[in-house]
Amino acid sequence: MSDLIKFDGLKDMAALLELLPERKKRMKQASAEPQTGDAMAALARALHPELQRLVIADVRQEAAGARVFRLVPDKESGTAAPAVFRAGQYLSLKIDISGVRVARPYSISSSPADAVDSGFYEITIRKKDGGFLSEHAWKEWRVGTKIEASGPAGFFCVEPLRDARHIVGLAGGSGITPFRSMLKDIVETGADVKFTLLYGVNRPDEIMFKSDLESFVAQAPDRISVHFVCCEPDAAWCGPTGFLTADSIRKLAGDPAGKSFFICGPQAMYSFLETELKQFDLPNKRIRREVFGETADVAAHPDYPADAAGKSFSMTVHCGSETTVIPAKSDESALVALERAGIAPPSECRSGECGFCASILLNGKVFVIPETDRRRLAAKKFGVFHPCSSYPVSDIEVKVPLDKS
Amino acid sequence: MADGKKAKIGGACDVVVIGAGNGGLAAALALAVRGAKPLVLEQHNAPGGFATSFVRGRFEFEAALHELSSIGPENNKGGVRRFLEDEGGVEIDWVPIPEAYRVILTDSGMDARLPFGEAPFIDAIEEKVPGSREPLTRYFALCREVSGALGLLAKTAANPSPKRIIKDLKKFVSESADPFEDARRNASNVVTFLRTLPKTVDEVTLKMGIPPKAVDLLYPYWCYLGIPMSRMNFTIWAAMLVDYIDYGAWIPRLRSQEMSYAIEARVRELGGRVEYNTRVDRVLVERGRVKGVVTASGETIKTSAVIANTSPTQLYGSLVSPASEAPAAALRNVNSRKLGGAGFVVYLGLDASPVELGVNDYGYFISKTMDTDAVYGSMEKLDLVDMQATICLNNAIPDCSPPGTTIISMTTLYKPGVWDAVKPKEYAALKNRLADAMITQFDDALGTDIRSRVEEIEVATPATFARYARSFNGGIYGYELDPWDSIIPRILSEKDESYIKGLEVAGGFATMGHGFSSSLISGRSAALKTLAGLGG
Ligand SMILES: Cc1cc2nc3c(=O)[nH]c(=O)nc-3n(C[C@H](O)[C@H](O)[C@H](O)COP(=O)(O)OP(=O)(O)OC[C@H]3O[C@@H](n4cnc5c(N)ncnc54)[C@H](O)[C@@H]3O)c2cc1C
Ligand code: FES
């Protein structure tokens, strides 16, 4: 076709030029009002606020060693309503203790409807000896205390497009908190699922939410059932005893085939249940685990380099335009070392999952627990590590992100 | 650093790049290799913007990239690969995409698998629709002429004007090694280029005598540009089609996140700085000149040059400070342009292999019809859209997920505004309903059962993109490429439409239009313009 076309500069240039007046005309006719925001940014902010300013409206004791804090928006500080969440999610609570800002994750134990219709969250804090936030909360938090929290986070939620219609919840200790939210949600929304909750405790007086859980069963007896399983029963105990094992699970929840298992509890329970659930030969997708926070005894991990145990290293930290050298113990996460030194990079899950604390390892070595290593492939290739789930095993040099707030 | 949380970015710097998306990273790279020390400020905690990935359970999902154009093999590198590797010194493990696409049109029952390479591509269409070969061969020749002339244009001087373009094109013709043959070819390139410049794709394509069913097989890439063929500028389309079919398409082995981390690491190696969790809230302007930026934590960084990896809509609407420094002409400019589509993606980790599932291709375009106006119309409702562009990553990178598993991501578009009325409390259920419908759409089209094999699922909506990439209204594309707002008119208007000294835009909203390759290239041009400005 090329041969058929003769070059006619003027005419062809006219074609080119025709577009420019059209463009000018359209721009001239357009409004000069600035678009200062957009609806999707607003929706994203409503769903995932960077910070929620809350205030404690109520505190109540829930069994031995656990307190429920009801948090409502601190309207004076600009938070109008609690962000919507999905049952099973957590909040990262942020506190300043003697000038150090740290954050700790706590599952929301109230239901989504409580947040949407009644404007509150409840979180339930188990007292932990030597715990940084938990001890502080027990000592200092009362009605009127202001609390800062992240938006709702986490993935420990029932997903109809993925999970079975019959769910078995395996809760241990304070791991009951997300399940309370899930069960209350099932009652309130009438969701078309069956939920069997097996709740393991050491002693009968540790059972949290006993009457709540029983009332959920009473309200939806065809969908919800709850079994308390006690390790160290007293004379009055008449329910099942011992650990949650393959046998007890099968006995209480029936044939495991075709069911989804949700696990939340202390770290030791995960490793124990791992072995137990193997006997059921379930597909991977049928077992969901909540992250459990920082690993308690990292040196016990079989892959941990033995010669690093019990040592203290130096950590050169670049943050913004500043550089500091701080001590870092080999058995504490790099994040705790940073926080102890008063450097608080952002954190949310403290379990290696969310990437909020992502930093760059410029020199040296850290041990990352393979089971909680949720870094992206490229992150690993380019020296990115998550301080919350990494342990120094040599002197290290790192670049950590600035805190947003 | 006694009080670590007050750590600052500190000081002043020559160039601030706002955002570490494709455009921002490319700009930082182009600056850094030329000895400038850019400071990149990114609100998120990782580089990449859309060029990212995320982990759920045993799977690492690609967030956005389907295929990159202009990469090409080692021995025939495309422009983007030359920029990243040869100029930038960035090493990326590129993996070729096995075939162009599989297109399934559910209304007509058309189902075809199209390979890369002009000849095999045309052969495959001829086999499905006899009689297509001759018009398609002419069509490709035409597209090639247009694309060639566009390539020449890219090499023209920095001060484009219609006269200048014609002069440069003529000059190119007269300087050719084989004057007679090249002159004929290039003269015709120029003519074809100029004649088709104001035309839409339909206006050119539908006159070529290509059987309608073959047009259906030719058009699926339209959804990467996102406006119907009755409006999309032909020039851009021709260049894109030729690029994909000639060079093939490529992806980084470790997801697009590999590319963003690789560029970021190289920028740091060259002395640039990248700070995360650092949102820029204001670009300070005084009497039409950039003076600095202010971060969300209130820190001011002095600079005379800013490259913004954002939309000009956000830049002039809310970033430029004081607001009185945003010229009315700039506001009219951004308001006159149409925002491209907002993204909706369903990411699936499946617990069966691609073979077990019967999902044997990499890229699927599944659509009710190839009537692009009708499909575009379906993006106006908060309901299942008529088309999905779906990727099965394992069919390019078999070991991208554990043995016996598969990663699939299904993408569609909504017009800006469609999601505006969504309330937070309806959000989760809405996501679920739409994802459910898209899974059915896929299973019905392929006769598969991926639904029962879902091990992980994540759904990204316009709000997700607004959250992670701060994209305006959740858009994943830049301004729509109508003929009056396609690349040539943008190039020709650049001078007139430059409103603030020291301020350049990089990314999908810049001159070159959206898409990974264009955004990378736009970052490079923004860097060059910035350097020219700093020098002068
Ligand atoms: C997703 C998720 C949901 C959870 N939900 C719940 C729940 O609903 N209820 C519940 O009770 N628990 C819950 N947990 C567990 C809870 O987050 C932990 O128990 C909690 O983080 C413990 O925090 P702590 O501050 O009390 O103890 P930690 O401080 O974590 O204890 C570790 C040790 O490090 C030291 N340390 C840490 N930081 C510093 C610092 N900055 N300076 C000096 N020393 C420091 C402490 O002194 C202590 O010895 C959840 C965990 C996760 C991951
Ligand atoms: S805090 Fe979530 S990965 Fe470290």
Explain this structure.
With 405 residues, chain A is α/β, with parallel strands linked by helices. Chain A has 3 domains: 48-149, Elongation Factor Tu (Ef-tu), domain 3, CATH 2.40.30.10; 166-289, Nucleotide-binding domain of ferredoxin-NADP reductase (FNR) module (Rossmann fold); 299-399, Ubiquitin-like (UB roll), CATH 3.10.20.30. Chain A has helices spanning 9-29, 39-47, 112-118, 132-140, 177-189, 210-219, 246-253, 267-278, 334-340, 377-381; strands spanning 52-61, 66-73, 90-97, 100-107, 121-126, 146-149, 166-172, 194-201, 224-230, 260-264, 287-289, 312-319, 322-329, 359-363, 366-368, 384-385, 390-392, 396-400. In chain A, the strands form 4 sheets. Chain A has a 6-stranded antiparallel beta sheet. In chain A, strands 9-8-7-10-11 form a 5-stranded parallel beta sheet, with helices on both faces. In chain A, strands 13-12-18-14-16 form a 5-stranded mixed beta sheet. Residues 1-8 of chain A have low confidence and may be disordered. In chain B, 40% of the residues lie in helices and 18% in strands. Chain B contains 19 helices and 20 strands. Chain B has helices at 22-33, 79-87, 118-128, 133-154, 162-174, 179-196, 201-205, 212-218, 222-225, 234-247, 256-269, 312-319, 328-336, 354-357, 372-378, 424-446, 462-469, 487-493, 516-535, and strands spanning 15-18, 39-41, 53-56, 59-62, 94-96, 101-105, 110-114, 250-252, 273-275, 280-286, 289-295, 300-302, 305-308, 320-321, 342-350, 363-367, 387-392, 406-414, 454-460, 503-505. Chain B has a 7-stranded mixed beta sheet. In chain B, strands 9-2-1-13-20 form a 5-stranded parallel beta sheet, covered by helices on one side. Chain B has a 4-stranded mixed beta sheet with strand order 12-11-10-14. In chain B, a hairpin with a 2-residue loop joins β10 and β11 (289-295). The longest helix of chain B has 23 residues, at 424-446. Chains A and B meet through α1, α2, β13 and α10 of A and β3, α4, α5, α6 and α11 of B. Bound molecules: flavin-adenine dinucleotide and FE2/S2 (inorganic) cluster. Flavin-adenine dinucleotide is lined by residues 90, 100, 102, 104-107, 123-126, 128, 130-134, 154, 174, 177, 290-293, 336, 339-340, 349-351 of chain A.
